[in-house]
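Supplementary Data S3. Sequence and structure tokens for construct A.
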Amino acid sequence: MTVATRSGISDNAAGAISYFTFLPAIAFLLLPSYKSSAYIRFHAWQSVLLCVTAFVFDIVMGSIALLTLFLGTVALAYILRTLSLLWLVLWLVCVIQAANGKRFRIPLLGSIAEKLAMK
């Protein structure tokens, strides 16, 4: 699925770019030349949902870290670093899959993104 849009950016490239913060994703959802592609809409919505989920997750984990400030801080620090690494890997998988023209669906978020992209 490497059909070029009017601006010269392929659907695959636009789908991958969607994952670089929520700003390009929102732009792709609003610009008429991009929002006509269900492929781009799917990746843009999944990116927005992933950003919102990561934001909420960071708040929850930060609150837990604050509550346990003096209890097990070394273990908590390693857990937070491991979770951050897992977020990075998930993000990289999404970018690579989108660049290769595949609809990698994150569990739960992917099905929501699919429904939103079909509207």
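Construct B, processed identically:
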Amino acid sequence: MLYNETTKKMIIKTKHAKSHLQKAIGLMFSCKKKFDYGLIFDMGKESIIGSSIHMMFVFYPIFVVFLNEDKVVVDAKVAKSWRFYSPKFPARYVLELPTKFKEKIKEGERLVF
């Protein structure tokens, strides 16, 4: 589960992309109707380039949240198909969510998963 420690609210159930293959595929070729969870990527260390994502073959917009090692939101944006995205500041974790959650998470908030 994803919990916003700053606002003290549960947000959504989560899944972890653990293997290199899961991280490479992410949400590619997935169905928007079945995307009702948060997908968490642990990039291993804080980085701007290392936490960048692509939206190739993801045919719907998603809400992307970049978190530092302390799980504090350093950047958040709606990502559209066929583009690349990098955080404004180094991030260790990338969280992909349905766009309806864009109003529930703000920069500077601490998330727990």
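Strands lie at 2-4, 9-12, 14-17, 38-47, 53-54, 62-67, 73-79, 84-85, 91-97, 111-112. Helices lie at 20-25.
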